[in-house]
Specification:
single chain, alpha/beta, TIM Barrel, eight-stranded parallel β-sheet, two-stranded antiparallel ribbon, 10 helices, 12 strands, globular, disordered N terminus
Length: 333
């Protein structure tokens, strides 16, 4: 990686403080404060990150994790996620997060705010569908493609209101985590924010499409990128998590898959090389840890479908090959 004043100034990773994706509760149980502090120390000292992107539903958890990261000298992006909420509820949740972020910014500095993530599918009211899974399925359906310009117009309206709400409470920089299918007017954001996953369908045009975002004149932040740890995961990109059959008891993989941690490590190395060469300002691996336990029995090794660079083992965790590769790359930079 090269230091050119604009390339990978922010070298980071995503950290889930607990997100309610399905309405059945947060994605992770509350962690003791000392454990959160330990995770932030690992992110700074072992992974050599300069920044962490904290996302989640509970504002108190976001604030606690942010305080731990900031006390260690890390830069923080704060991103509230309220899955399945309509625009008004989403904006009210954002307002509370913006107030909390401003208090942290005044105390520490080094805090920026991400106003949302892929709101066309995680939020309700833009793409039709009862759940984010229903809305996501329409991304692969050609019959819905003609309506995406309409959906992006609605998204632009929601983001305009989100900026107003955020700027009324928060004095730092703003961005948004845009999905590959979303067209965002970045004029009034401080940074371009892209959930920019590489996979089979966009591989040939991936770099060319990335370059067009420089035309905004804004710094580019890759708010999410990564893949899972099995053969074929790099080609699936963000869809890698879908190999779990959650209806099984206990949950199991939906077919025969071969664990391969090197696939994940190579993917991160390749992508970071691209981002550094293309003058991307910041990049955030998805993610530090996911609550999908590792098992020696391949049928129940849910960690294969995890984007985490560490694997959950019993009551603790262990670094994966991607952890060591990411630490090497960030340390070299």
């Amino acid at each position: 990686m090269r230091e050119n004043g604009t390339g990978l100034v922010l070298r980071g990773i995503n950290y889930d403080t607990g997100t309610n994706y399905s309405g059945s509760g947060l994605s992770r149980k509350p962690l003791p404060e000392h454990v959160v502090r330990q995770h932030m120390a690992v992110i700074r000292d072992d992974l050599h990150c300069t920044s962490v992107s904290l996302f989640g539903t509970d504002i108190d958890r976001l604030t606690e994790a942010a305080g731990a990261a900031l006390a260690l000298g890390l830069h923080v992006w704060l991103q509230p996620r309220l899955v399945e909420a309509g625009p008004q509820e989403t904006l009210e949740h954002l307002e509370a997060a913006a107030r909390a972020a401003e208090q942290l910014r005044r105390q520490y500095g080094r805090v920026d705010l991400n106003v949302g993530c892929e709101l066309t599918i995680f939020g309700s009211g833009i793409i039709p569908g009862d759940t984010h899974a229903d809305r996501s399925a329409k991304l692969a359906s050609a019959e819905w493609w003609p309506r995406f310009s309409e959906f992006n117009e609605q998204l632009d309206d929601v983001l305009g209101r989100a900026r107003e709400v955020a700027r009324a409470q928060f004095g730092g920089r703003l961005t948004y985590g845009a999905g590959l299918w979303e067209e965002v007017d970045w004029t009034h954001f401080d940074m371009v924010g892209l959930n920019y996953y590489r996979m089979a369908y966009n591989d040939a045009d991936y770099v060319t499409n990335l370059r067009r975002f420089h035309s905004s004149g804004k710094p580019i932040v890759i708010t999410e990128f990564g893949c899972c740890a099995f053969d074929g995961a790099a080609e699936m990109g963000p869809a890698g998590y879908g190999i779990i059959d959650w209806a099984a008891d206990p949950p199991a993989l939906s077919g025969t898959f071969t664990r391969n941690e090197q696939v994940q490590a190579d993917y991160l190395s390749q992508q970071l090389g691209v981002f550094a060469a293309e003058g991307v300002y910041g990049a955030y691996v998805f993610e530090f840890m996911a609550p999908k336990p590792h098992s020696l029995d391949p049928r129940y090794d849910l960690d294969m479908a995890s984007f985490g660079v560490v694997k959950v083992v019993d009551d603790g965790w262990e670094p994966k090959t991607a952890f060591d590769e990411l630490a090497r790359l960030y340390s070299a930079h």
